[in-house]
Amino acid sequence: MNIVYLNGVFQPSEQARISVFDRGFLFGDAVYEVIPFYQGVGFRLQEHLDRLRHSLRAVHIRSELDWADLLHELVQLNGGGNLSAYLQVSRGDSGERRPQYDEDMAPTVFACCRPIPDIYQLGADQIKPLTAIVTADLRWHRCDIKITGLLPNILAAQQAREQGADEALLMRDGLLTEGANSNLFVIRQGVIYTPKRSSEILGGITRELILELADDEGIPYQEVDIDYQTLLAADEVWLSGSTRGVVPVVSVDGHTIGGGDKGPMWQRMFQLFIGFQQALMTGAKDV
Questions:
Q1: 146 counts as catalytic
Q2: So what's the pLDDT on residue 123?
Q3: What is the CATH number of domain 124-282?
Q4: Which of 17, 43, 129, 140 has the fewest C-beta atoms lying within 10 Å of its C-beta?
Q5: Burial of 182 (0-12, 13-18, 19+ CB in 10 A)
Q6: Are residues 258 and 238 in contact, defined by beta-carbon separation less than 8 angstroms?
Q7: pLDDT for 3-40, tens place per residue?
Q8: Which DSSP helix (H) or strand (E) runs through 60?
Q9: How far is 177 from 37, CA to CA, in rounded Å?
Q10: What does the radius of gyration of the chain's CA atoms come to, in whole angstroms?
Q11: pLDDT higher than 60, residue 286
């Protein structure tokens, strides 16, 4: 049975109901987070919840629950193990469809889970490399806010699928920003390059961890502008996300990246990820 949380109640998903006038449903007036739990342990849970609070403040939705307790209970009710927890907060039910909203509206809080593979238990040989296309970044200019209005991402991801690729890389004003569902890294001559953090990209939790691990290991990195030719000339290209970890890209728009296989820098970073996750799950490292 799939148990969800809705406005203070844990219940089977088929029993959960929201109003047709909920602003999340009508306008996408909502923010969200997706947080992996491995063996019941939240992956960088505090960082995810800090980003949730940033999104709530940015769109002026007033909601503050004990998010960590809520998610831990939901994960346990769904059997624990390896689950991705989705948490969404909309502005709530306005009783009618109108653009304006009242400051004292009660937000709608919803959360659910789905199983995810334990990517950190897989060996590097079992990680499937990805292919990608580059397409226009049609999103709004506040991509640092994790809103539910994801139609541009959806269309870009579908475009990639229709062209036989795994992911769409987004480009605005001649510069790469990120993937439709991921952050971007380009590796050249032993240096990791990633687009500058700004309102044009989502500050990925896994992105920040990759940079932390690189710093700890003395691997040089730079946050820079990346254009199309730099992307194609890379020795390696990686994508990252909380539920996918760090994954190599071996082809972009049909052009082979590097040697067309998982590169040595990715192999090293993947091992660092495995070590971090094992320490997290055994309690040797703070969550």
A1: yes
A2: 79
A3: 3.20.10.10
A4: 17
A5: buried
A6: no
A7: 999 999 999 999 999 999 999 999 999 999 999 998 88
A8: none
A9: 27
A10: 20
A11: no
221, 103 contact by CB (below 8 A): no
Q: Boundaries of CATH 3.20.10.10 in the chain? A: 124-282
Looking at the chain, the domain(s) classified CATH 3.30.470.10 span: 3-116
Tokens 């919803």 found at: 110
Q: Could you give phi then psi for residue 275, rounded to 5 degrees?
A: -65, -40
pLDDT digits (tens, 9 = 90+) for 219-255: 999 999 999 999 999 999 999 998 889 999 999 999 9
pLDDT of residue 117: 79
Integer Cα distance of 266 and 114 in angstroms: 28
Q: Which two tokens stand for residue 86?
A: 């989705």
Q: Which fold has domain 3-116?
A: D-amino Acid Aminotransferase; Chain A, domain 1 (3.30.470)
Q: Which entry of 128, 146, 196, 285 is annotated as an active-site residue?
A: 146
Neighbours of 132 (CB within 10 A): 25
